[in-house]
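Hello again,

I reread your note about wanting to compare the complex against the isolated chains. To keep things tidy I'm splitting this into two emails, and this first one only covers the full assembly. Below are the input lines as submitted, including protein chains and any nucleic acid or small-molecule components. They are followed by the predicted structure of everything together. The single-chain runs will come separately.
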Amino acid sequence: MEPSPLYRQLAVHYLDAIRAGSLKPGDKLPSLRSLTRLHSISLSTALQLCRTMEGEGWVEARDRSGYFVRRPRRLAIAAMEEPAAHVAPDPAQYVGIHAKVSEFVARRRQGEVRIDFSLARGAPELYPAQALQTIMMRLLRQRPALLTTAAPSRSLTPLREAAARRGMRAGMTLAPDEVLSTNGCIEALNLALRAVAQPGDTVAVESPTFYGLLQVLESLGMRAVEIPTSPQTGLSVEALEMALEAYDNIKAVVVVPHLQNPLGSVMPDAHKQRLVALCEQHGVALIEDDTYSELLDSDTPARAIKSWDRTGNVIHCASLHKILAPGMRLGWISAGRWHARVEMLKYTQTRSNEELSQWTAGEYMATGAFDRHLRRLRERLREQRERTTDAIAAHFPPGTRLNLPPGGLQLWVELPDRLSSMTVFDRALREGILVAPGALFSNSSRFDHYLRINCGWPFTDAIESGLRRLGEIACESGAVRMAA
Amino acid sequence: MEPSPLYRQLAVHYLDAIRAGSLKPGDKLPSLRSLTRLHSISLSTALQLCRTMEGEGWVEARDRSGYFVRRPRRLAIAAMEEPAAHVAPDPAQYVGIHAKVSEFVARRRQGEVRIDFSLARGAPELYPAQALQTIMMRLLRQRPALLTTAAPSRSLTPLREAAARRGMRAGMTLAPDEVLSTNGCIEALNLALRAVAQPGDTVAVESPTFYGLLQVLESLGMRAVEIPTSPQTGLSVEALEMALEAYDNIKAVVVVPHLQNPLGSVMPDAHKQRLVALCEQHGVALIEDDTYSELLDSDTPARAIKSWDRTGNVIHCASLHKILAPGMRLGWISAGRWHARVEMLKYTQTRSNEELSQWTAGEYMATGAFDRHLRRLRERLREQRERTTDAIAAHFPPGTRLNLPPGGLQLWVELPDRLSSMTVFDRALREGILVAPGALFSNSSRFDHYLRINCGWPFTDAIESGLRRLGEIACESGAVRMAA
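Full-complex prediction:
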């Protein structure tokens, strides 16, 4: 990577000071003259520094008095409204998401994508490639027969041990042999659903939820009932209770308690606890998708739902895809009282995972480097989320809403005036900008005026200008509609 | 590995001559005195050589005249009878194999296994660990971000290209983008069955067949109808035709045309062709499991069933598990007219396979080393099969039958007098010898007096004595039963 120009390096320096609170809204930046002396830079560089920070909305120029720190734009953006939890849920239905996703994919393939905001994924450079490579090469040298020896069934790989250890931090008591390695969290969810429900059965899901889950349900021939979900506190336990009373064929609930996809919501512990009790009382399996917990901006680990499980009714699923190695398909599942059935289903579906990648990831996770990596990753994602939110606040039409989530790599954006995200999607794609339209996150049309925006990539000028253009397109689409 | 003693090296030399036909049954070995001169060995080494070959049944001592080449014992073993093809098939039923396999696994865990004949797998040392390791380490150095970059969807990995190229040799015309990588052949079979049939539907399978397939059917809630299958020519197309006429809910046929597991049968081309036509005519999907073709003792590749497919009705599944890398979970599927559906199911089940292993295997397969490896592998497996058969002929009770298959790594052995293989299994396990009892290979009890014996491991003295002990146990079990 080329080093960034001097004025940009200095901008980052001042930004850090603003973020850390040592420069507060209303504080004055050093004068141009002071800047030249302080940093031994030319007057034009000092001017470029101030104008850049002004352009990005961090400071404002006041006539003849200099540059002052602004309130970050993101603080001006309105939060979303809470969903109505006390209405009867839509009837459970067979999921029809494949058609929507296929259309999305087909349209996407027509355009050439320059900037992709549609993912829910981190940039490769956010992950410790070098360290993983070093471990893998050492393993290949030390155990040359690893690639030519079939994985022993039930072998307690370092990944299973690491998953059990991480589980302890989240309040779960798991032995490594209660954890099964899977091909990513998506296989874990497949196995969990196949273990507890049959085709034709109904599964309660958050609304909105990630289309990957809706696709799994559709492919397994299961019905989904969508439960109102708060952008702040996640699944509405009251609404779920109403649904469980209204339908007697709900076999499972799938929930993402921390940094829900796409909302970014986090369930309070009291909600998780009530959810565990409610599911148990109704004899409904509770499937916890814990993909994002490690991305929470917090030094104390969040408590997993399964930590309150006393009867084996909670199935815990997780993965390394977002937190360590997007190029390795590694996830795991702790299936409680369905352990034997899930083990059998895993064997019949894909056999045991390869050993090499499990050893590589597991050995890395056993070192202090893993937590150091996670801290850096959270820090970088926080910056990316904040800068993305600032850009959205600056460029999107008035009335745009979003809740800045306390972690993770995506934003859920509500467009004003029920503006169609498909219109924005189509127009943006013509200019090479890809977004995930809200329609993909529900069977209903309730989220058609939402977008999910990925913040997993370093915030570059290209990203900034992509967001600006996206905002302009949204403004234009709104104006066109108003005129029509 | 330690070099084998001199007499053993010389025994291998003479064995090669016998196998190659330069020493024929009835031919005399050089005298002990000639042997000492020919090979500059001591008289005691020459004697050890001859006694070893005698002990293994290759030569016999005739009084005062020396050692003469014997007819290999395996030639004395009787072939199996052909199954009756013209009887109505058993009614289709839900597979109840999990219970059988669970019992097998539970019993196996009680004993300590010294010698494992129950696998269908090659020893790690039969595969090119070093070459695969070298390629993988080079890839890791050249593309350090491989582990931290999510696999692009639809990326045309070298594995997909190699699979398409190998397909050409087997008479199929496939573009790399018609081949999808899977987690082994077992995932390919799952996807194929999920694409063409629903829970409750009936699937026709060979009888006997490998329990892995019966487990997949059971876990998917499908019914199996077992079609009589010849130990020589594989699936009986006539019997299948009767079944298709008797049942109207058969949605698919799964067939292993080459080196069927467990039979080792090979379908003649004319049968394959009739099978393709029959399935098309009845609107039944034909799923070809081509795991073993590359292990056929032949320099001309066998023609895949899919090579006669003109309408996309044949789904071809294969894997590297038996032929290249038992430690890598790599298979592939070409799903004909179900391609889009299988692609969707693969995405919802486990996402795309990791890139690293696909690149490693695919790059190896693109070199001449792959065919050289396969030739060596076939040669070694042939020796192991022959020596295993010789040992069975020498030690198993009279009336034992088997067909020596033209390739592969296992033997299917019929015990005389309908001797229960579970009795043999139990007694052998007490002595640390594990076999796969025939009961696991069918829903019926038709194969309860069969055993499947793995020949994938180098034939050592331990294997020889394990087979001898197994034969004694079978003889004792038979005698006990007779006496009872």
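For quick reference: Residues 160 and 352 of chain B are 12 Å apart (CA to CA).

B.
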